[in-house]
Amino acid sequence: MVRVEGEVQVPGSKSLSIRAIMAASLAEGTSVIENVNLCDDVKAIIHAMEGVGVQIARDGTTLVVEGPLKIEKEVELNCGESALCARMLAPIAALYDAPVIITGDKTLLKRPMGMIEGPLSVLGAEVMTKMTRLPITIHGPITGGHIKIVELITSQFVTGLMFALPLCKEDSEMIIEEMVSSDYLVLTEEVLEAFGAKIETLDDGYKMKGGQTYTPCEFDVEGDWSGAAFLLVLGGVAGKVTVKGLSLPSHQPDRAICDALLSAGAAIEVDGDSVTCYKDPDRTFAGLNGFYFDATDCPDLFPPLVALALNCNGFTEIKGVDRLTHKEVDRAKTLKEEFGKLGASIAIEGDVMRINGSKLKGGKVSSRGDHRMAMAFGITQLITGKEIEIKDADSVTKSYPQFFWDLETLEVKE
Fold it and tell me: Which residues contact 6 (CB under 8 A, 6 or more apart)?
């Protein structure tokens, strides 16, 4: 095993960047958004908003957004591979009395969109999908009302409803039978509040007054915990890595990577906006230990958690496998099969993934177009010092374009 050491400035949160751009696009006037993560998914929402009349100027990682968006005739909006863009945009498109076709590329065309049809139809929109997949055609307007979300496989569509319903003429109430990824909805609330929208949180959903407007503002995007998770795992396993630009406290669900690392025996230090993870000197000879972690509400952590678990002694159990089926790929199956090519011992038992600490070898693997798989293989290659050929490694541009460049800045000590 090699040893790494260094500091990395993590890009802005992809989730918050997309939400802030959407809110700014709905506001009448000029908003300034700082520290935007200009990854492929964020570029997708920028292009979509420009397609409906929003003026967006870029200066480095700062965006100046001039809204509001206008939909006065049929328009087609391409969301690239961003599921958040597509699912969030659908309720917003339903506000307008003109057909909106939402489409996408590659992996997004395979991801489920059926959850959109029922609630928007109840609210008065005409909705048509291609066998519950993209493209979606939506024709509003919706005017508000009462809806119940019964089967929620992702919180992304709820985020879209939270953006759209305050703009309806009438008041709205949304009841959610079983909440998932609730922290992402807290992120949505934070953005809406910053842009002047008011939402009342219920025990099982939300209430929103109709007739609200969005107010332009200056919004600073906090650093991305999802990307930082891989770098912190690298530090905990193979040396010492400091990730700069993070916020604590934070409502980003993937901040929970710190809990997993501590459970495994790694050390964490926080200094302002910097988080450092390193091998605990008291455990240098014992190594890291297997752990239990519930990733149901932070499923994007599965790839870095697996990379961590493979470098721990004994078995690790990670709960939340059911949340992985509808990602860019079937992520549980992909983790098992692709890491298996490197000698990993991974079993899936219902909703639990069981990983045995394994001595990995080099070899050829594929990200299968999944950005988080590519990042997991990237840190694994550095940890093992073995030659690992990663097919579709450039998929990291979906969320963290400079990931492999940042890895190269870390000092490797044999």
Answer: 241, 242, 409, 410, 411
